[in-house]
Write a structure and sequence with these properties.
The chain is α/β, with parallel strands linked by helices. The protein has 13 helices and 15 strands. It has two domains: 176 residues, Periplasmic binding protein-like II (D-Maltodextrin-Binding Protein, domain 2); 130 residues, Periplasmic binding protein-like II (D-Maltodextrin-Binding Protein, domain 2), CATH 3.40.190. One of its GO terms (cellular component) is plasma membrane.
């Protein structure tokens, strides 16, 4: 699993934890053997045990992985396991009842809603951050650093022929384009399909992978390569990739949050099983921790936080489900 840089959020959350620990000179413990919880007066939080399982989007994964690491400092006896099988793959496990939550880089589809209803699984959607789907080229590519949406369509939609850069612009190199794309289980693929492909087929020559690091390495190693994935993966590898401006707008925190980076700005989600929130105290606590700290973690790993009121709305919704 890829290691992410948590320095900013670790400092923020670590300071909060330290202040909480120092907030009282008196510590009292109330141990309840029936549910193995220990409540401390200085923090006001119960020490919990239990297990939580999630799966889904590789785009949302850096946020969740960071939160899991930080949550372990608060609740060390709660085991949180998170798989990364893509948004579609995560929903399949969620529908099968294998997970408590599902990360998604697109809204849930109508057919997935129907399958969950059929399975008797009630769920709640929580938005956790914004992302800008980022188109990237090799740093040696100095001709295709600014593309229009129409040019992206020309590039990525299958037309039955081998594509060359000169097909897009006669002044560009007469060399074959090498494509790298997230796999079809990825919410990133689904989103690109919706806003760029318009439901048409992706170029058949593209290398598909659910592992964004494979896409990064592919584009970084070939001057004729082009790919796309979440903004955080670009930031983590910006020393070996060039981000493409779309319709004259480069992906940045500011343009993603404002919506100026259109149509490739998008929200990121966590879908939680309602019954698990009610029955598993550790899961409820983890989701509360997630909504309280997702903004800091999103920015720490390269995404864009939501307005504070959106997290407050999520916390109010969560509380109503307890």
């Amino acid at each position: 699993m890829k290691k992410w840089k948590y320095l900013t959020v670790t400092a923020v959350l670590g300071s909060a934890l330290l202040l909480g620990a120092c907030g009282s000179d008196t510590e009292t413990e109330d141990t309840t053997t029936g549910n193995d919880t220990v409540e401390t007066a200085d923090s006001g939080d119960a020490q919990l045990t239990g297990s939580i399982s999630g799966d889904g989007s590789s785009t949302v994964a850096p946020i969740t992985e960071g939160l899991v690491e930080e949550y372990g400092a608060v609740q060390p006896d709660v085991k949180v396991s998170v798989g990364v099988s893509g948004t579609g793959g995560g929903f399949e496990k969620f529908i099968a009842g294998e997970t408590d939550f599902s990360n998604a880089s697109r809204p849930i589809k109508d057919e997935e809603k129907a399958e969950l209803e059929k399975a008797g699984i009630d769920y709640t959607e929580f938005q956790v951050a914004f992302d800008g789907l980022t188109v990237v080229v090799n740093p040696e590519n100095d001709w295709a650093t600014e593309l229009t949406v129409d040019q992206l369509k020309q590039l990525w939609i299958e037309n039955g022929s081998t594509k060359k850069w000169s097909d897009i612009d006669p002044s560009w190199p007469d060399e074959e384009i090498v494509f790298y794309s997230p796999g079809t289980d990825s919410g990133t693929y689904d989103y690109f399909d919706e806003v760029i492909l318009d439901g048409s087929d992706l170029v058949k020559s593209a290398t598909l992978s659910e592992d964004d690091n494979v896409l990064v390495q592919g584009v970084a190693s070939d001057k004729n390569a082009i790919g796309f994935f979440g903004f955080a993966y670009y930031l983590e590898n910006q020393d070996k990739l060039t981000a493409v401006s779309v319709n004259g707008v480069a992906p940045t925190n500011e343009t993603i949050e404002s919506g100026e980076y259109t149509p490739l700005s998008r929200p990121l989600f966590v879908y939680a099983k309602n019954s698990a929130l009610k029955e598993n105290e550790a899961f409820y606590d983890f989701m509360k921790f997630t909504l309280e700290h997702a903004g800091e973690m999103a920015e720490a790993v390269g995404y864009v936080k939501l307005p504070d009121e959106k997290y407050d709305e999520g916390l109010s919704t969560l509380e109503s489900l307890k």
